[in-house]
Amino acid sequence: MSDTGTQDAAASTEPVAMMDYFMHLEYHEVVAPNFRRYGEALMNEKIIGGKCPGSCGLIYVPPRSFCPIDVVEMTEADDVELAQTGTVTNYTVVAPVQYYGQEETEPFVRASIALDPPGGSLMLQDILDVPVDQVRAGMRVRAVWLDPAERSVDEIDNRAGRGAPGLIKGWTPTGEPDVPEGQYHDEGF
Amino acid sequence: MEDIAIIGYAQSPSWREAEQTENQFLYPVISEAVERAKIGRRDIGFTCAGSCDYLSGQTFAFVMNLEAVGAWPPISESHVEMDGAWAMYEAWVRLQEGDIDTALAFGSGKSSPGNPREIYPLQNDPYTLTPLGADPVSLASMQARALIEAGKITEREMAEIVVRSRRNAESNPRAQVKGSPDVDVLLKEPYFAAPLRKHDLPPISDGATAVVLATAKKAREVCERPVWIRGIDHRIDIHQPGFRDLTVSRSAELAGKAAGIGDAPVEFAELCASFSHEEKILREALGLDDGVEVNLSGGALAANPMMAVGLARIAEAARLIAEGGRKRGVAHATSGSCLQQNLVCVLEGD
Amino acid sequence: MSKQPCAVIGIGQTKHKRRRDDVSLPGLVREAAQRALDDAELTWTDIDAVVIGKAPDPFEGVMMPELSMADALGANGKPMLRVHTAGSVGGSTSIVASHLIETGRHDRVLTVAYEKQSEGNAQWGLAGGRSGGMGAGGIFAPWMKSFRQRSGAPEDIGWKVAVKDRRNAAKNPYAHLQMPNLTIEEVKESPMLWDPIHFHESCPSSDGACAMVLTNEDGAKRSSKPPAWVLGSAMRSELGTFPGRDTVRPQAGVECAHAVYEAAGVTNPREQIDMAELYVPFSWYEPMWLAGHDIFTPEEAWKMIDAGETNLGGSFPVNPSGGVLSSNPIGASGMLRFAEAALQVRGMAGDHQVEGASVALAQAYGGAAQYFAMWVVGSTLDAVEKKKHK
C-alpha cells in the first residue's frame, strides 16, 4: 500500500464539534414569457413594463402575467415602453459581508429609481460616477447600458425583480437639478 | 367541532415542466376554485398556503405566491412549509374559531427545475442520513423490499397497481402519466432501485391545487353540492427508518381511526401513494378492503406535483362526490420518506 | 361555536449564542421544549400535538425539519405542523398553536420555534445565494431613513434604542448580547452597515430556540403557577412589492394591530397595554412599530424614546427582554416576543420584569415588512376590562 503523501493529522484534544457539509444544488428553470420579453427588450436597449388593464393602472417592471392588485390577467398587449431617465427616490449604502458567492468588496449603493412618465420603477440599482457618500434622493439620473457585445440575458430569470443585471450597467447623473423632496413618491420599491 | 364543507376546488394540469412560474400557474387555479365556490375573493376569511423553498430553489420563495392570492388590501393569511393538505388542515382549524365563514387553502410546487435525488436527502436527519445521500427512492426501495420479504406484496402486484393507476388516469385530464401498459412487459424492465422499477416511481411534476372551505351555514347558502369534511386528522411517525416497522404505517392508521374512517362504509379512496407498494401499506392501515375503489384519478403515480399532490387527492375526492355521484370517500396525504407523516380526511356528500 | 380561552402555562428558551456547538439541532429545540414542559409541570406524554416554526430551511440546510425533529420532540404518533411565515414565523406559530386550544381540538399543545444560524450561512441565505446581497437590513434601511424624515426625529433616536435594548438584555440571562455598558458614542462610531444603520444598531446572528406549552382553562387551573391568558391574536399579510406601496407604515401592520386590539377588547392601546415586545431587529423599528401599530403618532413615538419612556421603568416599556437587537435566532425571535410578553403578565420575568404588568402586547413581522402576527396576553381573562374601570 503506497503512501500518497498524506500526513498523520496532529491528534486533536478537542472533541469534534462541527463538520462541514457542502452541497451543490442546481435548478434549471424555464424563463416565463413575460420575463423573456423583458430580457429581449433590454438587449435592444429598451426598458419595458406592463400596465395593468384593470382599475389600478399600475405599471410593473418587469411586465407580469397578471396584476396582483386587481387580480386580472396581463398579456403582451399590456407591455409599454418606458423612459430611461428618472429620479432616485431612496437608496442605501451596503457594506458587503463576505459569504460564499459574494463578489463585492467595497461599500456599494442600491437605489430605487422612479422612471419618468409613463412611469414604472426599478429597484436595487447601481449609481455610477458618484461617490457613495454623495448619492442622494431626488437626484436625476439616466440609464447607462453595457456595450452590446457585453450584454447578456443570462441573469434575467423568473426573479428579475432586481432590475436589469447584465444589461444596464447603472445610472448616471443627468446634471439636472435635484427634484425637491415631496415632489417624488418616496418609493421603497 | 363545526361542520365544514369543501365548496370549491381546482387543480392545474400536472406538467413534466411548466412554462410558467409557480405563482403564474397558481393564479388561475385559485381563481377557478373561488369561482366554483360562488364567493368573491374578498369574501375569503383566511388563506393558508403550502409550498417548499427547497423545491423552488430560493429562500422565501413562498412570498411570491402571495401575488396569486390577491393580497391587497391586506388579508389574514398563513403558510406551512408542507403539502397543501396541511394548509387545508390549518384553514379547517381556523374556521372552527367561529368568526369567519370561508377559507382558501392551496398547495403548489415545481419539481422540474431541481433534481429530486439531490434535494430530498436534505429532508432527512442531517447528522446520520443526509450524509449518506439517503433519498426517498432508496428509502422507498427498502420499504418495498421489506414488504415483499414479509409476504405482503409481490413485484407483479406492484406492477398491477401501476397499470390500474395509468388506466384510471386516462379519464383524468389533469393527469400526466396515462396508458394501458401490459404487466408482463413492465416486469421485463430493469430495476431502477431494486426492487423498484421506473414504473413504480412517481413522475416529476409541476402543479397546483386549491380548495375553498366553508362553515355549514355558508355552505348551505352558496353551494348546491357541498362536500362535508366528516373527519380530519394527521399524525407523524418516528423519523429514523430503522426504528420503525416499514411494512406498516402506524401514523396513517392512527390518523384514519381518529378521522373516523370506520364510522361508515367507504366507497372510494384517493391515496397519496407515490410508490406503487405504498398503496398496499395504506390500504391496510386505513382498513380499506378490495371493494373500495382506489385512485380513480390515477393517484400520485399518474401526477405528482409535490406540495400540491396531497391536496390534489382531497380535490379529486371532492370532485367524485360533488360531480361523480359518489357518497363517501377518503382522501390521504403524506410527507417524508416511507410514509412517515400522514393526513387522512373523510369526505361525504349530502 | 364559542372559543375556549387559551393559557400559556409553560415557557422555555435556550441561552442564545452566536454558536451553540454543544447541542445538535434537535438538542437545541429540545432544551427549550424541556424547559417549557418543566415550567408547565408536565411531561412529553402529556402533550397532544406539536406545532413547530422556523425561518427558511436553507438557513441550516435541513429541508422540512419537522420530519427529522419528530423523534426529539416526542411527536411520535401525534399531529405535527410546521408553520413558515418568514420573520414573523415565531409569532404565527404561537397563534396557530393557540387556535388548536381555542377550538377545543387539543388540550395541551407544545409549540417551538428555533434557528441554528451557526450551522448555515444566513447572509448567504438572505442573499438568495447570489452576490451583492442586501443583507438583513439593506432593504429596510431606506424605509428607516424615510421614517426619520417624515417624523422629524433627530438622528440619535436609533442609537438610544440600541443602548436601551442592550442594557435590558443584561438583565436577561438568556439574551445573546450582553453589553450593559454600551454607550451612545460607541453606537455612533461603530461601522456603518447599511446607511444609516450602524453595526451596534443591528441585531446579532444567534442560535436559539423558544418553546411554550399552551392549554385550556382546565389545564390552567391545574397548574401551580399563574398562567398568561391569550386575550386576542391576529395575522395579516400584504403584497411585498407593488408601485406606490407604503413600506414605512405598512397597511397590513395597521390592520393587524386594530384586529388584535378589537379581539382583546383594547380601545386605548397606550393606556390599556402595560408593555410591548416588538420585533425590532434594527433600532429605528421601535418608533416605526409604535407608530405603525397606532400606539403613538410617529412624533410621539420618537419623543417617548428620547425621554426614556420606553425604558424599563418608563411609562411604556418596550422590549425589556433586550429584544431582537440582543438575540436573533430568526425563526425563534417572533416566539420569543410572544413568550416574553407572557412571562411579563405571569410576573415571571425576573430582573427584567415590568412591575405590575397585567396586559402585554407582542408583535412579530417578516418578509418585506409584509407579514404580521400579534397577540395580547393578560394575567386574567378580564385584565383589559379592569384597565377600563380604573
Largest interface: B-C, 58 and 60 residues
Biggest sheet architecture of chain C: 9 strands, mixed
Count of helix runs of chain C: 16
Q: How big is the Rg of chain B?
A: 19 Å
Q: What percent of the residues of chain C sit in helical stretches (DSSP H or I)? A: 25-40%
Element string of chain B (H = helix, E = strand) = EHEHHEHEHHHHEEEHEHEHEHHEE
Strand order of the largest sheet of chain C: 3-2-4-7-1-8-11-10-9
What topology emerges from the helices and strands here?
The complex is a heterotrimer of chains A (189), B (350) and C (390).
Chain A: H1 33-43, E1 48-51, E2 59-60, E3 66-67, E4 72-73, E5 79-81, E6 85-94, E7 108-115, E8 121-125, E9 140-145, E10 168-173
Antiparallel strand pairs in A: 1-2, 1-5, 3-4, 6-7, 6-9, 7-8, 9-10
Chain B: E1 4-11, H1 22-36, E2 46-50, H2 53-56, H3 62-69, E3 77-80, H4 84-95, E4 102-110, H5 116-119, H6 136-149, H7 155-169, H8 183-187, E5 191-193, E6 196-197, E7 206-215, H9 216-222, E8 227-236, H10 250-258, E9 268-270, H11 276-285, E10 293-294, H12 299-302, H13 309-322, E11 328-335, E12 341-348
Chain C: E1 6-13, H1 25-40, E2 49-54, H2 66-69, E3 80-83, H3 89-102, E4 108-116, H4 122-126, H5 135-138, H6 141-151, H7 157-169, H8 184-189, E5 192-194, E6 197-198, E7 207-215, H9 217-222, E8 228-237, H10 251-264, H11 269-272, E9 275-277, H12 285-292, H13 298-306, H14 323-326, H15 330-346, E10 359-366, E11 371-378, H16 383-388
Parallel strand pairs in C: 2-3, 2-4, 9-10
Antiparallel strand pairs in C: 1-7, 1-8, 4-7, 5-6, 8-11, 10-11
Helix pairs in contact in C: 3-15, 12-13
